[in-house]
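Hey, sorry to bother you again with one of my protein questions. There's a protein on my desk that I can't quite get my head around. No rush at all, and the record is pasted right below.
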Amino acid sequence: RRSAISVLADPSKLMSELLKTPFSVTIGELLGVSREMAQLLSENLKMKSGSLLTTTDETSPEAFVFGAKTHGLLISINMECNGSPVRAIIDTGSELNVVRTDVYRTVIQQPMD
């Protein structure tokens, strides 16, 4: 048995149109219902070792945010110091400025406390 209205609707065409429809969703909702998306986000937030002395290129983002293992988010940004490119990691909650010795000696070369 089918109603007069249900005869007029093509379920496969309707589903096709439904899947093309844009909609707003929060990242929390998306990650809550999709294990694969949650895993991809987690993998992309993991800290990876890399050189602080880098050469800037067109494929390198100007800045990006990643999760710290202990707390909060850190900001990474490409900067230039005395004409040399340096990738800086900014912790907005920190009271100290920390730099590797080799970066200080080869790039910064300024008096420090």
